[in-house]
């Protein structure tokens, strides 16, 4: 197992920049999830770590060794592909041993590793079967098994759950988490699903347009998003945003006002009068009431009842919508005008360039 | 009503069902019967007759086949043509198809420049008329004014030149290679298309497993395109045993020198239509055509029962 260091990594296809100066350091044994919307460069980054795509600039170190010019098999990585990419003309056992044959692992050692991986992944019964005779979940486990027998320094997962149905996705997610606990290996995992990212990751890397927007622990990203993109990307339903302005500053407190919410007092910090801001509040932090650092009013248009909570979609004064989570049996009725408030630690302020403003509330 | 009918057709009045069958299946049955089944049956029927000099035909049963295979005057050229045809086929299987596979493999490599150009150039001869190809190669290989001897001399290999098309020992292989040159584009295209069908991630997985491009080709790509390769082999077999045009355009119906390039197609042509001193004999010609049909049928059956059943197609 080993650490992974990425420095100033760039990838360009002609005039399009896919990755832009990516720097990332991953510790030994860490489970890091790359997450972002499609086309953000997360899969490209993973393929470059694997050595399947070349870099236009920058360095990749695995276990302290510069691997830029090494072939995929020489980098000490193993990869699990989205489509599983099992060899259709080989049975499960051959699928797992095939790569080992070419990297000089002796037959007895191959058998030992396959037996161990099969036991770990409950594949013993399936070793002689062909991929066509396996279910999606079984294929997925074989693909993971093929990665395990390589005994790599770093595991790379490219959206491994996206071809599974919802129930299987949850159980396989748990299995992958268990596997990480068992193997204590370094894992880089790409997904576009933030639930996977939040549940699996030690640290999440949020990417957008070829850049890293924020790196942090799941809950840090949730409670202290570094910018508007991360704030909007992490959390479901997404954070509500309100346009705002700094009206005045008095005694170290800034008065922030906007069309769609009641005025708000925050620590002035680096703010100055007239600054354009965005105020963000998550739906689950809004409660009905009158007293709160932040308060907004809206007319209920729709209520989605999920059971453990309901989501109220409200039309605000400026005509746009926002969402509030309502707990319990008493849900507001459509047409009702409701005031929702949030405590000051749950109010996020972003400046005109989208960066988080430290208001010292947390 | 048989159980296999769907509930909809089961409840249909018989007349309406018959009308539907006629409407959907009728045209295909008519066209297929008219242009495929009828000529075949008619040829087979003709092969059981003989005609006297006045042109009157009389039924002789299998006597024509007895003559063809038993009378040395007929059987010698027949076996010669069949043997030559096997050589013709062998050259295609051993040269055309491996070269086609290799070219397809090269085209499917990542980062090959001018892929489209090479593909088109290598497919171009296939689109030429066989007559043009035959005429051109006749000129190229001519010892009098051909460029082949000059080209060999220019690279110091002039002593290797021989009038290949004129020698009994080399004429058939030379013609086979001309045919290979013309048609290598077909296996190349079919196999290239099959190779493109292999998902990129599978190749990536093999790269992560430590395989180079050559090993990826032999261990991953080749086993996965085997169904296409066997299809190409069948197409080659049928085309080769029906071949006629190239031999005729280069060597004429006598398939010289001394019948060294005579294959079943040219043998049939001389028998049926006659040539020089040989009179045309439609009933014997029909017998030759029938034998050719059964040879191809036999080959196809061997393929279907021995090869096809063991080959598995892979869904990706």
Instruction: Output the radius of gyration of chain B.
Output: 25 Å
Write out the CATH superfamily name of the largest domain in chain B: MetI-like
Under the CATH scheme, the architecture of the largest domain in chain A is 3-Layer(aba) Sandwich
Largest sheet of chain B: 2 strands, antiparallel
Largest interface, C-beta within 8 A: A-B, 26 and 20 residues
Strand percentage of chain B: under 5%
- Spell out the helices and strands of chain A N to C: EEEHEEEHHHEHEHEEHHEEEEEEEEEE
Q: CATH class of the largest domain in chain B, anyone? A: Mainly Alpha
Structural classification of chain B? mainly alpha
CATH topology type of the largest domain in chain A: Rossmann fold
Strand content of chain A: 35-45%
Describe the overall structure:
The complex is a heterodimer of chains A (362) and B (316). Chain A is of the alpha+beta class. Chain A folds into two domains: 4-232, Rossmann fold, CATH 3.40.50.300; 237-350, Nucleic acid-binding proteins (OB fold (Dihydrolipoamide Acetyltransferase, E2P), Beta Barrel). Chain A is built from eight helices and 20 strands. Chain A has a six-stranded mixed β-sheet with strand order 6-7-8-3-9-10, with helices on both faces. Chain A has a five-stranded antiparallel β-sheet with strand order 13-12-11-14-20. In chain A, strand 7, helix 5 (166-183) and strand 8 form a beta-alpha-beta unit. In chain A, helix 2 (92-102) crosses helix 3 (107-121), helix 2 (92-102) packs parallel to helix 4 and helix 3 crosses helix 4 (136-149). Chain A is elongated, with a radius of gyration of 24 Å. The model of chain A has no long low-confidence stretch (mean pLDDT 91). Chain B has 316 residues and is mainly alpha-helical. Chain B folds into two domains: 14-59, no CATH class; 66-310, MetI-like (MetI-like fold, Orthogonal Bundle). Helix content of chain B is 69%, strand content 3%. Chain B has 15 helices and four strands. In chain B, the strands form two sheets. Chain B has a two-stranded antiparallel ribbon. Chain B has a two-stranded antiparallel ribbon with strand order 3-4. In chain B, helix 4 runs antiparallel to helix 12 (226-241) and helix 12 runs antiparallel to helix 15. The mean pLDDT of chain B is 91.
